[in-house]
């Protein structure tokens, strides 16, 4: 753990105290503003000095609740997760205040000030933490707080991590070395770097590394007091949600099912219906304009819903069940099957279940444009509304592709396929299939409304600045 990270974690307590104090003062003065006094005159006698005497222990109560909800952990959360915890902590704290007020009758009687203080508390604490994050990221430009790491493993995973860390300094990782495997010679070199204080962590970026190599590397990092991270394989991603029980002194791990079972599935379906209805209305003009352009550009149907032999186009959905699929046509009619014959030599994903043709000659001029901005997939919103797909989830694959899945890869069919998902916002066509499955497996095991919200917010950025699309 970097000293700067410890410092920023430590200052959270006094800064939260100041933000909460500012929130309570803002609520006090808001109640005495003419806008509100004209609507509801003040019927109580309370000056600022006595008010602060009352709210000071309340602020301490807020800080204690913040502590119990994990807002002062050294490990920082994502912005969305931290904000959700702040809202939860402020709401729980205010509920305690109301409970104390009800039973003791010693607090002031202005409900407006209490509610305004709750709203201001959420706003001020979120703003304070956002500014602190901005300061932390600014310091990273000067190398302050940067994690100096060595990558072990020369795989597509390590290449992707190197590209990501170099392109996004705000992540706080500086690659100072990249090695294929962990050997005794490398251990000696890393030990020297540690003695010179030039290394902080080691990242094992080989999901297929042997158990022995991984254990040796973990033991080395513990001996040298170095941080250790590793890229997850399919098994690790699949058991992300687990509980450890102890029976007869033996630890037994219970692998929990996806949170999308039960109420999670109900919430997701209600959200899909509501959001898809709104998006269908908003995107209808775009779909209509694209349909006209397709008709003017080339002969053939507007929708791609049938294969070359006249049979219906299908995709594999939840639990491996096929469903009727359609989207805006982007290719010349009757050329779909060429991907398995004349164009097979241009497949950029040979050796995987998927087929991807780069610089696809079958694509029309309009088709190239609507593919670039994913306009061809907008009709999938109707499939979301009907319940065949979801807004967020693994991509829907062809039956012949699914036939080539390995058993562990079929986990992605646990839930409904989505218009967008973890893989789509993390590289799209540039991802290899194993990485795509790992991301989708992580999503299935760690689903939350906030994760869906994050993916949906990031999707337009990926569409407007395409990476990995053909």
- Give the termini separation: 41 Å
Give the H and E element order: HHHHHHEHEHEHEHEEHEEEEHHEHEHH
What is the count of distinct domains?
3
Global structural class: alpha/beta
Taking all residues together, what is the mean pLDDT? 84
Family: Belongs to the bacterial sugar transferase family.
Membrane topology: Multi-pass membrane protein
Domain Bacterial sugar transferase: 268-464
GO molecular function: phosphotransferase activity, for other substituted phosphate groups
Q: What would your notes on this structure say?
A:
- The chain has helices at 3-10, 12-31, 34-37, 48-68, 79-104, 111-140, 156-167, 184-195, 211-223, 234-238, 263-297, 365-372, 380-386, 399-402, 433-445, 449-464; strands spanning 147-152, 173-179, 201-204, 227-230, 242-247, 250-255, 303-304, 314-316, 322-324, 327-328, 390-392, 418-420.
- The chain is of the alpha/beta class and 470 residues long.
- The chain folds into 3 domains: 3-140, no CATH class; 147-231, Response regulator (Rossmann fold), CATH 3.40.50; 263-464, no CATH class.
- The strands form 5 sheets. A 4-stranded parallel sheet has the order 2-1-3-4, sandwiched between helices. The protein has a two-stranded antiparallel ribbon with strand order 5-6. Strands 7-10 form a two-stranded antiparallel ribbon.
- It starts with a helix and ends in a 6-residue tail after the last helix.
- 24% of the residues are buried.
- The mean pLDDT is 84.
